[in-house]
Amino acid sequence: MKGFYAAFITETMKVFRSKVLWITFLLFIFIALMMGLLMLVAKHPEIAENSAIISTKASFISSANWLIYFNLLTQMAVVLGTIGSGIVTIWIFGREYSDRVIKDILVLPVSRFDIVLSKTIITFIWSFLLLTVMFIVSILTGKLVTLDGWTSQLFYHSTGTFFKASVLTILLFTPVTFITCASRNELLPVGFLIIVIIFTQLIFAALPEITPYFPWAIPALIAKVAGPLSPAANIYSWFILIITVLLGFAGTAAWWRYADHH
Q1: Selected residue with higher pLDDT from 256 and 162
Q2: Highest mean pLDDT among 6-10, 99-103, 229-233
Q3: Quick check: 161 and 74 in contact, CB under 8 A?
Q4: What Rg do the C-alpha atoms of the chain give, in angstroms?
Q5: What is the pLDDT, as a whole number, of residue 187?
Q6: What is the 3-state secondary structure (H, E, C) of the chain?
Q7: How far is the C-alpha of 122 from the C-alpha of 93, rounded, in Å?
Q8: Which of 87, 99, 121, 226 is the most exposed place for a label (fewest CB within 10 A)?
Q9: How far apart are CA 126 and CA 136, in angstroms?
Q10: 89, 92, 122: which is closest to 192 by C-alpha?
Q11: Does residue 64 carry a pLDDT above 70?
């Protein structure tokens, strides 16, 4: 336990001393503000008369109300949860290789499993906080825009849906950790993230029948934000999701334990 505590405190200090932490939070706050701006333009189209880009994006919003806004937030959580947790994972697990300090870490009197576990927990907390901050800022922005249709029941239901989708999506960062460690650089995991995002969108559009069996599509199905024509998640979906997360973590732990790091 002392080994895990020491590893966790060390990793936490490294995160708080990094500019990457604050840059990611600023980025997610900016995204939340932009979402509020799109709702404002959807409510008052005359604001963006001189901006074709903003007008086009706002035109995809059918109605400027809280129900639409919450659905949009949850959809963003599924996409940004993948991107955000992927970026955080690559930084936390990949920086030792880019900084060439991996051998120094491995000789510390701390078990490699404790190091992996501490990094994994910090990755989840960091990623979860990013989406939480985005959600809070988005709610405040929606209040400023004065969207229609606010009810306490809608807020509680939508909040639960948002965080359910967020947690399930974030947990899928474990395969990225394994790819980052096994490749010993940032290029391959970034490519993997891009492929996952593109492929997820493609199967939703062209092969919706396989979405309940593709890990990165499952959170949207469970949260029921994939659209009325998408199939529902089933027991196999939960099994695939859990196995994917566990295999990613187990693979990372095994790699740190048995791989040749010289």
Answers
A1: 162
A2: 229-233
A3: yes
A4: 20
A5: 86
A6: CHHHHHHHHHHHHHHHCCHHHHHHHHHHHHHHHHHHHHHHHHHCHHHHCCCHHHHHHHHCCCCCEHHHHHHHHHHHHHHHHHHHHHHHHHHHHHHHHHCCCHHHHHCCCCCHHHHHHHHHHHHHHHHHHHHHHHHHHHHHHHHHHCCECCCHHHHHHHHHHHHHHHHHHHHHHHHHHHHHHHHCCCHHHHHHHHHHHHHHHHHHHHCHHHHHHCHHHHHHHHHCCCCCCCCCCCHHHHHHHHHHHHHHHHHHHHHHHHCCCC
A7: 11
A8: 99
A9: 15
A10: 89
A11: yes
The Cα 207–Cα 192 span in angstroms is 20
Tokens of 117: 């576990």
Of residues 51, 117, 93, 79, the one with CA closest to residue 185: 93
The boundaries of the domain holding residue 126 are: 2-258
Distance CA 105, CA 117 (A): 14
47 touches 92 (CB < 8 A): no
Asked if 86 contacts 174 with a C-beta cutoff of 8 angstroms, the reply is: no
Report whether 13 contacts 117 (CB < 8 A).
Answer: no
Tally Cβ neighbours within 10 Å of residue 202. 10
Give the count of beta carbons closer than 10 Å to the beta carbon of residue 51.
12
pLDDT tens digits along 50-62 = 554 444 444 456 5
Residue 76: CB atoms within 10 Å: 22
Question: pTM value?
Answer: 0.89
Domain count, the chain: 1
> Which pLDDT score, from 0 to 100, does residue 214 have?
95
